[in-house]
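From the pipeline queue, job 12 of 40. The input is one protein chain; the requested action is below.

Action: predict structure.
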Amino acid sequence: MIDAYSTATPNGHKLHIMLEECGLPYRLHHININTGDQFKPAFLKISPNNKIPAILDSDGPDGKPMSLFESGAILVYLAGKVNKFLGDTDREKFTTLQWLMFQMGGVGPMLGQAHHFRLYAPEKIDYAINRYTNEARRLYGVIDRRLSESAYLAGDTYTIADIATFPWLRSWEKQGITLSDYPHLERWFNEVNARPAVRKGTAMLVKERQPIADAQSKEILFGATQYAKR
């Protein structure tokens, strides 16, 4: 049994989709990041960086319980557990990992900054908005070019690279993107979005997630609480 600790964010949805795609038995636990669940000692034991998602697998590689944090590491772990979505040959695996790292190092952080400065920053800073909106457009262009030559990010097969990237592109309008400007990406987006596991995974915990609107939530997520020594 896998205990999954998450909420309805792009990184959380990666885990939800992957669990559904893998068909593994799991229990989903909501971590309310607006009220500070991510800072509780029990959660910090398995996610010392106080970020979702995290998992606790009762049947780890050596038959003993194993916990993991960082969504990319979790996807690689689960892919290895079911021997799917990573590729069969070394070339396929490294190609998949290449595009997974592209998401982890570029797509997630940069689109996250675009979201922050376009939607949540207490003051509108034109330089930051333009910088991260332009970077979002550049990254969408990289993905579109890749998908002009292959069906999926890592090649002809759906992998954890697609699972990791898709949730971050669902909010394209909020990132200042017009999806039709990227026709190959749009084709891929619609195809991935139609998968039953993706539909189910992106609906998980949505009702529990609260909008980041009140001052307390913003302080917990972006203020002194986030940076307190623990």
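Job complete. The beta strands are 2-6, 26-30, 54-57, 66-69.
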